[in-house]
TrEMBL record:
GO molecular function: zinc ion binding
Protein name: Zinc finger SWIM domain-containing protein 7
Species annotation: Panicum miliaceum
Keywords for the protein's UniProt record, in alphabetical order: Metal-binding, Signal, Zinc, Zinc-finger
Coiled coil start-end: none
GO terms for cellular component: Shu complex
Amino acid sequence: MASQRLLLLLALLLLTMLAAVVAGEGDGVSATGTDGANATTGAGPPAGGTLDVRARKWWRFPATEGLITGSERRDAVWAEIKSAGRASDEHLSILETLFGKNMLRACKIVDERGVRRVTGAPSGRSLFLVIGESKRKEEYLCFPEHLCTCYSFYDIVGRGEQLCCKHQLAARLAEAVGEHQEMEVTDQELAHMLAKL
């Protein structure tokens, strides 16, 4: 009984941490350098200031104001797909440009109904189980924007060669167009699934 409670607490802690990461995502722009110069107004780089290398937007040129970043465009495409409830050829073309062959493989997984959303009750927290393309048809536990338990995620995404794996894309696409199967479990069962991470 105590071990089950511990697993549940660990799972809830993990989900809380993931939610905090998502809520805290910003562009990481450092607003001022050590001399107090405003780095976001285009007034120039802060002399002697520190560079926030995570953001790569430490100094904005006036000519680039108003241009959108790749991540902003990607998020806008996902939002358009979700609001329309379907992905147009234009949406899929943009996503294929961004994600390459992984997007085609993700579409195949969605077409084969290989995505299940598992929701815990009564908390409403959820994760996705995505079937792989191999002959073994393994299921991978997936948080579409953050994590997948497949080898490709740790190997290729972890090295920065790809933005995400095909399972993450399949989960995100299936959720956006409503082409996933729903499965409800208890929060305790969800915690056991997360404990396998």
